[in-house]
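::Encoded backbone::
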Amino acid sequence: MPTMAQPSAVAVATPPSPVTRTALERLFDPRSIAIVGASTSPTKRGFQAVRALQQSGFQHPVYPVNPKATAILGLEVVPSIDALPNGIDVALIALPGAAIPDALRRCAAVGIAGAVVLANGFKETGDAGADLDAALAEAIAETGIRVIGPNTSGMLNVSTGANLVGLQDVPVGPISVITQSGNMLLSLVNDNRALKGPGFHAYVGLGNQADVRYDECVTELSRHEGTGAVAIHSEGFADGRSFLQAAASAVQDKPVVVLRGGRSEIGQRTALSHTGSIAGSDAVATAVLRQAGVELVDRSDELAIVAGAMATTAPIAPGRKVAILSDGGGHATLAADALTARGIELAQIGDQTQQILRELLGGPASVVNPVDVAGATDADPTVFAAAVDALMSDPAVGLVLIVGLFGGYHLRFDASLREAEDATADSLLALTASHGVPLLVQSCYAGDAVANHDRLRAGGVAVINSIDHAVRVVAALDRRGHRLSTAAERSALALPEPAPRAASGAGILDEPTARALIEDAGVEIGGWTLARTVDDVVTAVTGYARPCALKIVSPQVIHKSDVGGVRLNVVAATAADSAQAIIDSVTGNVPGAVIDGIVVTPMADTGVELLVGATRDPIFGPVVAFGSGGVMVEALEDVTFRAAPFTDLEAHEMIDETIASRMLDGYRHLPIVDREALARFLVRVGDIVAARPEISELDLNPVIASDTGIVPVDVRIVLSENHPGDHI
């Protein structure tokens, strides 16, 4: 990169006017930078920061601040923050933690928009850093200055040379990175270099997230023209709901790829000691992040390659499938197996396409998908282009995956093939552009210095060494295509204005109140009666004209069955005796119990037992759970989640993710369940908990789903002391 000119006049230049840019825009794309704590010692970060900016080609004013030095690396030194010109975009603060609050106040006083705080010793140290953390929070709130960190590796805008990290020779490209760990940036850069990926646009090391959070970074960086995809390593979100909203909005234009740390119990403890974050429930986080359109990767070696490929490759069009073009049966089989394992369907190639391929490739070739050229390209690699043209012309094909050794024929067979391979690479770029069908290449020679691979990469076609990595990218592109095609049918994940509080106090609601609450919200729960006397029980059971369930209502009784407070299959002839038996059993087992009545409900028809519940996740807010219910809850562990509120489409996706979904279409003796009705039921449950922040738990288990309706057997709601305006 070019080196910045170093005359002392640079230090007294007037910063560009910040009037038209927000504080975050100025923070992530600074046009002027102050180094507070600049040093004359090459071993100090305050010296290294000035040097990094010069070596990275930053072409805007840089102001070293040091009360003792006069010049650093050719730049005139400013003696104090107070002496800086007004309106600088960013201050890199290389001072001890105790000095940070005062430094931030001084920066704000001279109009600095944002600060990158390197110091540690804050909340990541536990109780020892609590006072300093509180002082930092007070300074941020008082001044309104935007802060990255503390405990951060820095910030880097690769395209402008605004290098506040110090890492050199980061290739320019479309990947914007957000992490809490500087080592993760090093890993990503090295992985990208080894994989010959497309390079980086920007990096933000959030550290402790004292101010600037993941959601704000996603929103801001996704707006940058230079960002093709956002790659995130997270050890915890300070505001999970805001992140979901930011991601759901950003993915409409730019892919967001996330690698999460702290997913295990041990990992969560490590994350807490590292950054002071709370990692939260892995099952909930996985489900709701996918709901927001985030592409989740499980391995550290997948983040760079998936984000890089998604940044340059178009998604698979909805309704279209994948075609594999291979120069070897082994690679073809492995690719097909890996795609199938990830739920990716292969395209059914049409008869006309097969005929074209047969004429092109000859008798030994396999022209069904996967297509195996069977040696037809060994002497003439240009045949690849003709085969790709035929496949991309087929209306069933949404992506072509070439697997094998393309690009290395001149290395494997004869050097004279190099010119043909180079020409083929150019043809492939033209074909993917003209057909509008994405192309992905897996090659044994992807790690070698191959000119035709470089041509493909420069044109936006990923060339990948590993079949598994290539398939991982295909799966991501398939999901992204589906996501974009259904964007209008999805929730923005914004919480509604809270409804008036359902009841005063906290704790478990009695069942009649709980039933009335969800019924008033539009959730159909079937018939029920609160009977105050034994005679009322008889009247209710007689009126339903079918076997009923009786359940005691008493503030002293939580687990009704444990004290004899439940009777099933009660008919008119046994109603009086059953009601009296419940009362006698409860009063005998719970001396002093106040009996408010008995809930009478018709016994549900035979159906599928489901779990429907909701909770307030400490990170993501109101979340609905769905899966197999009744006695199968613990046995199957079949449950998935959605952040509320959500839409009918998302409810259907939720249902389809579970084992229980297989039982809904008349499995063996079970009735056929109306999936539309079940989806509406889930949506309305989500609406309730989204609008009522005082509900900390809602448990409908089991819910009996049959051909006659969706009926919760038990209704349990727990209220918290949350203020009505507190959503999380």
